[in-house]
Amino acid sequence: MAGKGPLTGTPALKIFLDEVEQLPAERQYGRVSSVLGMLVEVAGLDRVLSIGGRCDVIARGGRRVPCEAVGFRHGRALLLPFGSLQGVGLGCKAELTVAEPTVRPTDAWLGRVVNALGEPIDGKGPLPQGRDAYPLRAAPPPAHGRGRVGGKIDLGVRAINTFLTCCRGQRMGIFAGSGVGKSVLLSMLARYTAADVNVIGLIGERGREVQEWLEDELGPEGLARSVVVVATSDEPPPTRRQAAYLTMALSEYFRDRGRDVLCLMDSVTRFAMALREIGLAAGEPPASKGYTPSVFGELPQVLERAGPGTDKGSITGLFTVLVEGDDHNEPVADAVRGILDGHIVLERGIAERGRYPAINLLRSISRTMPACNSKAENELITQARRLLSTYEDMGELIRIGAYKAGSDPQVDQAIHYNPRLEAFLGQDKSERAGIEDGYAQLAAALDMPWQTGAATTEGNADAGANEAGGEASAQPAQQKPRPARRKARRNGGGGE
């Protein structure tokens, strides 16, 4: 029947045949020989089970507890559960299940909320299953086969669009301590982005806040074009880890259909903590701050899955990093910063002043800038950064009144423009700001001339092009640059 005619072309039949092929010819069982904390030792499956393989431990009462193999010791498989071990004891059966977990998403998953196993948790009924099976632990695209990052992507947040311009296929980290506004910033990005699809992974989130975030922050508009994967902080470490894998697998599904995907993961730190718990339970020795060596090997495997694809689609990744004790040099933050294509630093002191999003622009960077900008845009951003840096250097003297006006023209200029820059960088969560409008507003705040259309929402055709190509694409915005720049410099408003 599998080879006859058009019946095999129907999605339902193909899914059924694929599932039949995955069924083992015979059922294989082991027995629980030890339970210690979260770790379950099973005897009898060590020759057929491999790392990452799955078992169902049948608890007393018939409840099945899905588990994953994380190691082997003395001829026994070491399993970690995806659920509660309540009712699991010595002698309980452990049945071998599918070797490689997969997910079968469709476009009908948009607007839905699922758990780490791909099951709906929003009360809207079952999820349709697609034809193609996507492995949860896929390898990143080969470096020689994937495309280059594309043009600018409008994220709807003024400070990021202008000072930290992000390109399609770029991967950025959002680094912040707790309570500094990461979740609100993510919701703004999900609602206002120009990407086709959002895939949002809430890893280790507080269970109380999930529904509030979905309804109040993301809202119906943001949810309609999003798939949200949720694994709360009370769930076992393998579940929190798998939520990150599922987030990337869903992003890859939409990317392979030519979509520009915005992948938001909150947070990489809680994913790393789940990896640490798994490694320690399996007997791996701790390294830096208790993190096991496998954590730092696993992080690039996940983060590298974001980026340009081998065809038209792309995954633009924004990953939050919860820095412990506001230490931006702690091990996970340091490792992630070296993998990604830029970082956005949220600072508690700025949030305490009441400016949101609390982005410290002087500590943040986008590695695709300035190659994706025109010359006029780069001059505008350079002047604004110079003013912010000058004010930051002299900030303490200015605040205590020790600086005397007129002592330094550059400091006087920074003091004059600082209130305008602060107002520009602040943005209410209900406000959307486009790229072109952002550049025009920044130029107006700095009293610099600006030509409408100088900021191109798509930037260069390829953000990795050399500077000559970038300047060539921006020539229409530079027809009358020199007199305007000389006048701006005479007025103390900027320039080179």
TrEMBL record:
Domain AAA+ ATPase positions: 168-351
GO aspect biological process, one term: bacterial-type flagellum organization
Composition skew (Low complexity), residue ranges: 458-481
Cited InterPro entries: AAA+_ATPase, ATPase_alpha/beta_chains, ATPase_F1/V1/A1_a/bsu_nucl-bd, ATPase_T3SS_FliI/YscN, FliI_clade3, P-loop_NTPase, T3SS_ATPase_C
EC annotation from Swiss-Prot or TrEMBL: 7.1.2.2
Chief localisation class: cytoplasm
Domain of life according to the entry: Bacteria
Protein name: Flagellum-specific ATP synthase
Entry keyword set: ATP synthesis, ATP-binding, Bacterial flagellum biogenesis, Bacterial flagellum protein export, Cell projection, Cilium, Cytoplasm, Flagellum, Hydrogen ion transport, Ion transport, Nucleotide-binding, Protein transport, Translocase, Transport
Region of interest (Disordered), ranges: 453-496
MF terms in GO: ATP binding; ATP hydrolysis activity; proton-transporting ATP synthase activity, rotational mechanism
Cell location: Cytoplasm
Organism: Ferruginivarius sediminum
Family, as annotated: Belongs to the ATPase alpha/beta chains family.
UniProt GO cellular component terms: bacterial-type flagellum; cytoplasm; type III protein secretion system complex
